Amino acid sequence: xxxxxETQTAETAGAGAQRQGSTGETRTAGVTGEAPVxxxxxxxxxxxxxxxxxxxxxxxxxxxxxxxxxxPEVIGEPYEDADATPYLPMFRQPVLVFEGSKETLAAAHGxxxxxxxxxAVFTSDLFATGNDRDNRAAVRAVPGDQLDLVGIAVxxxxxxxxxxxxxxxxxx
Length: 172
Description:
By secondary structure, the chain is α+β, with helices and mostly antiparallel strands. Helices cover 32% and strands 26% of the residues. It has five helices and ten strands. The strands form three sheets. It has a five-stranded mixed β-sheet with strand order 8-9-4-7-10, sandwiched between helices. A three-stranded antiparallel β-sheet has the order 1-2-3, with no helix packed on it. The two termini are 14 Å apart.
């Protein structure tokens, strides 16, 4: 995962020759000769600001696990080390993590629904369940506008995701 500075550098790459990549990213020639990548889309996680550290990690892991199934184009190629040991593919672009109040999450939830962007939700009820079946039942039992959200993940065009996250701040 990139630091905030690396992500901002990648997102705001300076002048240079640009070309459109086959997966929607824009490559801009960098000073070092390597081409920094500026993606047309954004993957973001918004966490409620009152979560314990273990909860933040758990919620983030669960939320992003769903995005690759809804948008397979966000998954890169498999990895391999110098010994030819294969590893699973990961996201092809950074995941930006934000935080906000309960009210910020509720507003973001409304905006992500109105824009019909791929999203995942994690509610406080899921901390008490131990499997996917019970997780789905816990979410299904509550009307959308009454969900006690502790996190959401979203993928979509950069500007649309930025609008969904209005009022949130980068996670420290």
